[in-house]
UniProtKB/TrEMBL annotation:
GO terms for molecular function: metal ion binding; ribonucleoside-diphosphate reductase activity, thioredoxin disulfide as acceptor. This is Ribonucleoside-diphosphate reductase subunit beta. Its cofactor is Fe cation. It catalyses: a 2'-deoxyribonucleoside 5'-diphosphate + [thioredoxin]-disulfide + H2O = a ribonucleoside 5'-diphosphate + [thioredoxin]-dithiol. Pfam families: Ribonuc_red_sm. The chain crosses the membrane at residues 191-212. Keywords: Deoxyribonucleotide synthesis, Iron, Membrane, Metal-binding, Oxidoreductase, Transmembrane, Transmembrane helix. InterPro entries: Ferritin-like_SF (IPR009078), RNR-like (IPR012348), RNR_small (IPR033909), RNR_small_fam (IPR000358). Provides the precursors necessary for DNA synthesis. Catalyzes the biosynthesis of deoxyribonucleotides from the corresponding ribonucleotides. GO terms for biological process: deoxyribonucleotide biosynthetic process.
């Protein structure tokens, strides 16, 4: 056979070709993880395509005005505390999420289209961590102070230790999703990261930082937070689709007892998040106070519970209706007028 002869020397076993119907989100035995196509889970592919269409880099956002404002007397000590606490929480929180994807979630998700999204999400988490390096560098902040807050500030350590407690089992080398009990452990990890960390723990910070942006202050950091918020809402939507997909493929795991456990987990998370808001806003600034966050965190938690098929628990009103508008606007393709729009149209380049 010549080097250019493509005729196989052995007849291939066509029965090994995959059927999309055989794909499973976890514990897939009959289809290998290297064959993206044919796609079964269209939602996973759509989240991947949307994530790519939203590509951005923190260094594209001009920081000059933020630097001038930060160095001036524009902010009170309480306002600086809000900014610093949130930089501290997000700077390491993004790494916790990225590491959980790579070290805990990825190897147990046995579906190529879901893995394709996880690879994209892991890169986005790296971009988010990069944002905090860039903000520290731009404003001349003490990086050791910012990146150590998750050890040094109780309200941040409380949230991070709580989600990390949900990853310990799954990170264990010997962990397998081979029994209903272990699938529940895996679901608890997914709920801990996608629903609690990215769906609840990030949102007080979004409100606080975007409140500066609404007053035309720290608009560079505000714009970066808008990009992060947009990415995070796709992360959460992917996670919710994954959680609901695993539930429907493994109906035995979603027992009454487990649902109760999840409700208790989310109630604990609400407590951590309210304490975080109280710690960020001991006296209230920017028209924000800890009581409004108590309502907001519970409002957000109710929305998340409904998405995973659990009943609302709190029935509070949304004290920040402008946040819904911000999230809706972020979904519109031309909302961001900087380079992101160009990335979106780059597919139309003629070569
Ligand atoms: Fe992130
Ligand atoms: Fe995320």
């Amino acid at each position: 056979m010549s080097c250019c002869d493509t005729t196989p020397s052995q007849p291939h076993d066509l029965s090994r070709r995959i059927n999309a119907d055989d794909k499973r989100l976890i514990n897939c035995k009959s289809v290998d993880v290297n064959q993206l196509c044919p796609i079964k889970y269209q939602w996973a592919w759509e989240h991947y395509v949307n994530g790519c269409a939203n590509h951005w880099m923190p260094t594209e956002v001009p920081m000059q005005r933020d630097i001038e404002q930060w160095r001036s007397n524009a902010f009170t000590d309480d306002e600086r505390r809000v900014v610093m606490r949130n930089l501290g929480f997000f700077s390491t929180g993004e790494s916790l999420v990225g590491n959980n994807i790579v070290l805990a979630i990825f190897r147990h998700v046995t579906n190529p289209e879901a893995r394709q999204y996880l690879l994209r999400q892991a890169f986005e988490e790296a971009i988010h961590t990069h944002t905090f390096q860039y903000v520290c560098e731009s404003l001349g902040l003490d990086q050791r102070q910012v990146f150590n807050m998750y050890h040094e500030v109780d309200s941040i350590a409380g949230k991070d230790d709580f989600v990390m407690s949900l990853t310990a089992d799954v990170m264990d080398d010997g962990f397998r999703t081979d029994s209903p009990e272990n699938i529940r452990r895996f679901l608890k990890n997914l709920i801990g990261f996608y629903v609690i960390m990215e769906g609840i723990f990030f949102y007080s910070g979004f409100v606080m930082i975007l409140s500066f942006h609404r007053r035309n202050q720290l608009t560079g950091i505000g714009e970066q937070f808008q990009y992060i918020l947009r990415d995070e809402s796709i992360h959460m939507n992917f996670g919710i689709d994954l959680i609901n997909g695993i539930k429907s493929e493994n109906p035995g795991v979603w027992t009454e007892g487990f649902q109760q456990e999840v409700l208790e987990l989310i109630d604990k998370a609400v407590g951590y998040e309210v304490r975080y808001a109280e710690d960020c806003l001991p006296r209230g600034v920017l028209g924000l106070n800890a009581e409004s966050f108590d309502d907001y965190v519970k409002y957000i938690a109710d929305r998340r519970l409904e998405r995973i098929g659990l009943p609302r628990q709190y029935n509070t009103r949304n004290p920040f209706p402008w946040m819904s508008e911000t999230i809706d606007l972020a979904k519109e393709k031309n909302f961001f007028e900087t380079r992101v729009t160009e990335y979106q149209s780059s597919g139309a380049l003629q070569w």
